[in-house]
Specification:
The complex is a heterodimer of chains A (274) and B (66).
Chain A: E1 9-11, E2 14-16, E3 20-22, H1 30-40, E4 44-51, H2 61-64, E5 69-72, H3 80-94, E6 98-101, H4 114-126, E7 130-135, H5 139-147, E8 154-155, H6 169-178, E9 184-186, H7 192-201, E10 205-208, H8 210-213, H9 218-238
Parallel strand pairs in A: 3-10, 4-5, 6-7, 7-8, 9-10
Antiparallel strand pairs in A: 1-2
Helix pairs in contact in A: 1-9, 3-4, 5-6, 7-9
Chain B: E1 2-5, E2 8-11, H1 18-24, E3 33-36, E4 39-41, E5 56-64
Parallel strand pairs in B: 1-5
Antiparallel strand pairs in B: 1-2, 3-4, 3-5
The chains are: A alpha/beta (274), B mainly beta (66).
């Protein structure tokens, strides 16, 4: 049995056993969310920050997620200034320095606003935040964010909530090649094989929400994602065989009862003519 | 005095504190964070933090998100 404790994910000096980070949005009920998170094995969960409903009796996300490390996001922010305000409020509320920095450019694609993301990252790092930025699958941008002091870089697989999977594994590989901080694929995966591919590529972790929450059975998909992440990580550590164009027999060539050596006639199975 | 809370105008007694505002809204102080005129108000100061006429207040909490 493989001991996953031997291979922790380390972010900002802190170790985690699970390489799957999950979101808490889009679930039908709090109970379904809790069951899915438990099945995913995740230790870090993302949350969003919004104005309170000015009426009492609202369910508490803090209570529902006790025992997990909260990763507040700045989802919905279009400027560095909005993201800074959100991160500071989240720190006061969640008693955590961790922040998933997300500054988007437009409502249709939800793609990252690179300049504002970098600007906000620099300030948040100075203010002592552990900054995990959502970014394009752009190796140059990833490097800039790392140089700015981010604790990880989180390139997208595909647009948020699209479920399209890793659209550019080659860019992810380029990011992995130069990154010295964890690379966490964030957004766009659809199913367990996508998670496996991300980890097989060598990504340190993966963050997802919709792929679990929008599955027909979220709890079952959460477990599938956990296994996909584990399978991908093990495959990465094991080191895959080199792909080859032609076949290569798995069974020994020698000692066959019939001889089909290269060049030998294979017509002997045909019925003899009278 | 009048303050704007999450976009809505609210009339409060002069000198009301953040703690009093939260009580009035029946908001649990441990479940929210408060911003006044773009600055976060530390939770430990809610009892002393007096509001002023025209203050822009945001009261936020965590919700599900990715």
């Amino acid at each position: 049995m493989i001991d996953h404790n031997d291979d922790p994910l380390v972010i900002a000096g802190r170790p985690w056993r699970s390489r799957l980070i999950v979101g808490t949005g889009k679930y039908k009920t709090t109970e379904e969310m809790q069951a899915a998170i438990a099945a995913s094995g995740a230790e870090i969960v993302t949350v969003a920050l919004r104005r309170v409903e000015l009426r009492p009796g609202q369910p508490s996300m803090l209570d529902a997620l006790q025992g997990y490390t909260l990763l507040p996001n700045t989802a919905g922010c279009y400027t560095a200034e909005e993201a800074l305000r959100t991160a500071r409020l989240a720190r006061e509320l969640g008693m955590t320095d961790f922040v998933k920095l997300e500054v988007i450019a437009d409502q249709k694609t939800l793609l990252p606003e690179a300049e504002e993301t970098l600007k906000a990252a620099k300030i948040l790092v100075k203010e002592g935040f552990v900054v995990l930025p959502y970014t394009n699958d752009d190796p140059i941008m990833a490097k800039k964010l790392e140089d700015a002091g981010c604790a990880a870089v989180m390139p997208l697989a595909a647009p948020i909530g699209s479920g399209l999977g890793i659209r550019n594994p080659f860019n992810i590989r380029l990011i992995l090649e130069s990154a010295k901080v964890p690379v966490i694929v964030d957004a766009g995966v659809g199913t367990a094989s996508d998670a496996a591919i991300a980890l097989e590529l060598g990504c340190d972790a993966i963050l997802m929400n919709t792929a679990i929450a929008a599955a027909r059975e979220p709890v079952r998909m959460a477990e599938a994602m956990k296994l996909g992440v584990q399978a991908g990580r093990l495959a990465f550590l094991a080191g895959r065989m080199a792909p080859k164009l032609y076949a290569s027999a798995s069974s020994p060539i020698g000692g066959l009862i019939a001889s089909h050596a290269p060049g030998a006639a294979i017509a002997s199975v045909e019925p003899k003519q009278a | 005095m009048q303050v704007r809370v999450n976009g809505e105008l609210l009339t409060l007694p002069d000198g009301a504190t953040v703690a009093e505002l939260l009580r009035r809204l029946e908001a649990d102080p441990t479940q929210v964070a408060v911003e006044r005129n773009l600055d976060v108000i530390p939770r430990r100061t809610y009892n002393e933090a007096a509001l002023a006429d025209g203050d822009e207040i945001e009261i936020v909490t965590f919700v599900g998100g990715g």
